[in-house]
## 1
Amino acid sequence: MQSTHTDSVRSLDGTKITYDRSGQGPSLVFVDGAFCTRSMGPGHTLAPALSDRTTTFVYDRRGRGDSGDAPNYEPKREIEDLASVLEAAGGSAYVFGHSSGAVLALEAARAGLPIRGLVLYEPPLVVDDSRPPVPADFPQHVAALAANGKRRAVVRSFMTDAIRAPKPVAVLMSIMPGGGRLAPIAHTVAYDATIVNPYQRGNPLPSDIGEAVRVPTLVVAGAKSPKWIQTGGEALAALIPGGDFATLPGQSHMVKAKATAPVVGAFIAEASSSASSKPPSEGPGQ
């Protein structure tokens, strides 16, 4: 088993970002979604399964776990956080983003961060009328709940408005012990919502959303996930130059390493091989 080393970096605004590093090989950074930390999320699940072929970096996004925060939230601060982790990873890396973390990873690639390739697992994009849109004021709504100490109410609202879980399930989730574990980072749901909400209104994605993404990109959806998630992922892949879309049989929004790690490993191996075979004139920045 690969040993894990914990360290931290400072983001551009001085916020401490804590990460775990393990393994050997091409660097792979995990960007998890809502209600996740580096010890409770897809990165934590997938990193051990990929550390025999990659150097994995699993970090606490700001406001979570052992990372710091700032009084006022702006999505660009999270892009800067990821940039600081990429620097710690050697200056560039492959990136795996899950759910709202996939949208954050996409925005980072659009901003020109040194990302070698992207795997975007189920970005929660609502691009048609196959489900109700997420309310436009959802980020403000959950931020107000958290500010008033109603953290379990944030869990319920997230489950009903964003995920569309049946209300009894959402209520049960919020009062169970698992809901209690989510409560301390409930305020960060507003961060995720701020990043994702513009793409959850039931409208087609902006035609230019993928134009600036010039790296190999694989968008993945589970075959057992709701149709709207699959539709959104497929629409995104079609707008990214050279983007691919894959459906994993038997899988859902809950990432399972046994099914997902081989796909991610194969993607990185192929992308690395392709990059190394290109002549210098076709390399990055040319």
## 2
Amino acid sequence: MIELQLFYNGPESPAIAVAGGLDAVVVDCESIGKPERQHGYDTEINPWKPRACEQVRVAAPAMRVICRLDSFRGVGPKVLDQAREAVAAGAHEVILPMVDSIDEVHALLDAMAGRADVGIMVETEGAIAIIDQLEMLPLRRAFVGLNDLMVERSSRHLFEGVLDGTVERIRSRCRRFKFGFGGMTLPDGGHPVPSRLMIAELARMDCHFTFLRRSFYRDVVAAGLDPAESVHRMRQAWTAARARPADAVAADHAELQAILQGVVRGGETRAG
């Protein structure tokens, strides 16, 4: 079953994660340098600090806590101190965004020294170029960040990396650790890409996890829906997608590609 990880959105998030039977809460601390890098794009930038990990641990002691750090691009080696702070606050795992070199990942692994799991974001040309080296490291997971990959490549839309096969090529070279991309919401939600087709594509690529972010908060939490029932529907859709015959997998993929071609032709993903 795919792991569903809820992005922390304030003190109510741990209770939502527990009620929904979710697998982890992600405290997103990546902010230094991100507003400048993503200026003009409709992306999510959170204000949280590592101490929010402690809030999650206190509110939901049995929940796995993951902290997405700042990047070496943004703060340099200070990110290692941030990682130690996150672990001291209760994080079970830290994720390094904007990976550019193997040395950055080695440095974080050494700093953690087995005290917490380490994951990475694959969202730069540098990370893609060394993916075979990264695949040999003792990482827990890799997530393809479509937003930053779009910015890095000056692409027209965040889903261009799915349309042109980049995500699938990365997936084919990541076999030793958990892999994920994109996000999930209710099967009948999702815009401009239907969630049912994103779920189908995650299943087709044999992904292990994905994030629940703005669309989930909008479609479920803000709408006042029951988190347990909503997550159950999402997991049912995942189970059905995994059970599809080959012709249905091909048909869903072709439908997704057709929609993505129209979306990408429609222009850039920018704020306002």
